[in-house]
């Protein structure tokens, strides 16, 4: 169970009770743009292998988010057993002097059921998140380095362009003056000098116009694509750092709950039952808040993945 949301809308906070009352509709979570469209773009535009790696990383991240949402649904299903246990243990914590044996039996039966539950998050090891983190950081480094190289080349090119323009103007002007000196008393000189001077002015104007034009060459286009992809990977790294932290906290708490329940079953006394009941009650709200936070982070991460993929595609196809 979890919060049902439209994946194209921002996540908003809600209470733990709303998580219990709604279902996660995983079928509504759609990767955008669809991978079939991305494959067609890769074939049509001959994408750089860094961008292909970006799309591969983004779809892997999407699938992991999708998988974690399904784990949250399983946790909420298990939570019903926890609620039954807490309800049965309520009389114990309220200090009832005598509890019928059949009630103790019912409590321990529910505790035994709880102890048999598997931790839904245990299937995701910390090394998997670390591997994802390392992969994303490496890709970010490659994209950022390539962007810096392109910007550096653009600066060098602009300086060379300006230097060449100045050089051509000086050469043309010097040539015109030289010819004018040698031909000033001839008819050819009278005709040629204005033409040469005019030509040098026209050349200077054209070169100036070229400097002011903002047409993006192929390197500039690739640089823009890489810049957008790098920003998307940077956001993905931050999102997954938060997600991995919450998964670790929640997984550890579930393992701890299972351990104390098994200990309670092993001892089989009222005082231990009270201690378990108190700990469940104290930590329940915090656990549900963190579970809700994880769910919201997952939806937000999917939103960011889809948004970044769309922007990169727009840059590639020139929208």
Automatic annotation (TrEMBL):
Swiss-Prot/TrEMBL keywords: Membrane, Transmembrane, Transmembrane helix
GO (cellular component) term, any one: membrane
Annotated TM spans: 163-181, 187-207
Family matches, as InterPro entries: DUF677
Keyword Transmembrane: yes
Any matching Pfam family: DUF677
Localization per Swiss-Prot or TrEMBL: Membrane
Family statement: Belongs to the UPF0496 family.
Listed name of the protein: Uncharacterized protein
Lineage: Eukaryota, Viridiplantae, Streptophyta, Embryophyta, Tracheophyta
């Amino acid at each position: 169970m979890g919060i049902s949301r439209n994946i194209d809308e921002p996540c908003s906070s809600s209470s733990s009770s709303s998580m219990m009352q709604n279902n996660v509709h995983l079928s509504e979570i759609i990767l955008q743009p669809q991978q079939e469209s991305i494959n067609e773009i890769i074939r049509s535009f001959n994408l750089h292998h860094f961008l292909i790696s970006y799309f591969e990383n983004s779809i892997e991240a999407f699938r992991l988010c999708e998988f974690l949402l399904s784990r949250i649904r399983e946790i909420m299903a298990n939570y019903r057993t926890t609620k039954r246990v807490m309800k049965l243990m309520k009389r114990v914590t309220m200090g009832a002097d005598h509890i019928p044996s059949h009630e103790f039996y019912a409590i321990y039966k529910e505790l035994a059921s709880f102890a048999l539950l598997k931790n839904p998050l245990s299937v995701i090891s910390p090394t998997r998140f670390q591997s994802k983190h390392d992969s994303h950081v490496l890709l970010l480094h490659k994209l950022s380095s390539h962007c810096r190289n392109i910007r550096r080349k653009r600066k060098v090119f602009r300086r060379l362009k300006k230097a060449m323009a100045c050089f051509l103007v000086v050469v043309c002007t010097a040539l015109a003056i030289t010819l004018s000196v040698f031909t000033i008393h001839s008819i050819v000189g009278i005709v040629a000098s204005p033409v040469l001077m005019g030509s040098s002015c026209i050349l200077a104007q054209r070169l100036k116009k070229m400097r002011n034009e903002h047409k993006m060459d192929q390197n500039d286009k690739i640089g823009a694509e890489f810049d957008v992809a790098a920003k998307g990977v940077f956001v993905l790294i931050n999102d997954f750092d938060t997600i991995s932290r919450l998964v670790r906290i929640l997984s550890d708490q579930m393992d701890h709950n299972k351990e104390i329940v098994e200990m309670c079953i092993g001892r089989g006394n009222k005082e231990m039952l009270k201690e378990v009941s108190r700990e469940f009650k104290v930590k329940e709200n915090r656990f549900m808040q963190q579970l809700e936070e994880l769910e919201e982070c997952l939806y937000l991460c999917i939103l960011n993945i889809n948004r970044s993929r769309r922007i990169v595609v727009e840059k590639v196809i020139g929208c």
